[in-house]
């Protein structure tokens, strides 16, 4: 065969009689080779019909994985990032999971920065949804970092983890990672300890409103401050802050949000309503049991101990909070996380603790989300 | 009359007690932090104030596996906001000996040609260089005093950051550092700049000789 003028390419050379040989036949020689084999009584079978097709497929796969590597593995989840880096990463996440993740703009901050949500959805139309937010207080850097890791985790685990898959097969997840971008930019450029928004307060030289005292739930009470210079200044009126109003409008407009999970730091606590009153919430027992389970599953990972309970009992009286508003507006499963640590580093949590923090928080988040899925209302 | 205190109130008293213990027993080689509140009860003492009885677990910040049990009593004086709460405590068992680390730090600073100056400890990303760890710990220990002296039942302080630290030359054996720190007060969420002058000697412990609250923009 090798002496034939057909330019066949042996992939396994003939060694001895009775042993098979493999050869690649160029298309123009196909007929001639077949005739030759058949007329000489040499049996053959076709292993690969079209080698070029296989090569094309392989090249495509290689290029795709190279693109994925450039995006996902070059993003360092174990570092703190700037606003631009996080916003760029969000686009990469959407690119890498186009049928699962999309980006929605829900408004603009005081200084006209875009307010973005990541939407995780496998389809349907206005499915019941879970809301997650991080970074409402800009100095709580561990929350944005945990948010980025968690969003990536959700995208990765759909189709892999049974719980995530079950959740996303019936519900949508909306995730706002930088809830206060003006404040966040300010923590990078000027004051690492900045908490509030950056809105100008009429008649005061002090800037900013506490976005977690600006919600219309017990608004303006003594669990917040009426002094614009205070870190817990509630603002001139409820929802005065564009950052807050955008979420209010979104959740109200959606109409089917079943859980709001707002992530803060620090103190290692899992909290639920109320903050604006000491009276227990109607669902106190259920929320308490769920919180107990979630912190227990969190502790299993690295031994990190959380306390849990209502905001008022566990940390302090706080008026006008996100979760109290959500709860009073029909969102039963409203929780606030206070992530690591308990004060050793506080807001300046070392970046070496980002991945451990996100990793241990994940089972707690899943517990809540699974409970929401399994208890429709 | 006795009431079970809420988690939040027990937590504040516990943080205060832990800060006090840390101040009395701490050094650049040893910082103690509150690990857990095992038990808390509150006693209202007529005409005097609120007394918290606490059973705490404290941990060595440099060695998380090293813990001690501590019982403490914290008395917040009624009405008199300028009087610091009374704190009494007993530590069960022995604290780790830190003579070697303390002496090493002492000699290192004594042998510096120029007085030590540093800022932003930890930095924005939470980093503390190994050389600065004893300076960080010294501030942690000393701030326990400042927090104790300025606490009420409605406050809970933590050391947020050292903005600036400057060594002050002394002719005697003590080391002196002038710190500008940021305290985080959790209930109000305020970040409060505070100046404190800290004296230390390995055998003489930590002493805050002077401290003053600074206006909000002082640290920027």
Automatic annotation (TrEMBL), chain A:
It holds the Pfam family Peptidase_M14. InterPro entries: CARBOXYPEPT_ZN_1, CARBOXYPEPT_ZN_2, CPA_M14_CPD, M14A-like_propep, M14A_act_pep, Peptidase_M14. CDD domains: M14_CPA. It comes from the Eukaryota. One of its GO terms (cellular component) is extracellular space. The keyword Protease applies. The active site is at 338 (proton donor/acceptor). Keywords: Carboxypeptidase, Disulfide bond, Hydrolase, Metal-binding, Metalloprotease, Protease, Secreted, Signal, Zinc. Residues 79-372 form the Peptidase M14 domain. It is found in: Secreted. One of its GO terms (molecular function) is zinc ion binding. Its main location: secreted. Its cofactor is Zn(2+). GO terms for biological process: proteolysis. Signal peptide: none annotated. The keyword Glycosyltransferase does not apply. Belongs to the peptidase M14 family. PANTHER family: CARBOXYPEPTIDASE A5, PROTEASE FAMILY M14 CARBOXYPEPTIDASE A,B. This is Carboxypeptidase A1. It comes from Opisthocomus hoazin. The lineage of its organism: Eukaryota, Metazoa, Chordata, Craniata, Vertebrata.
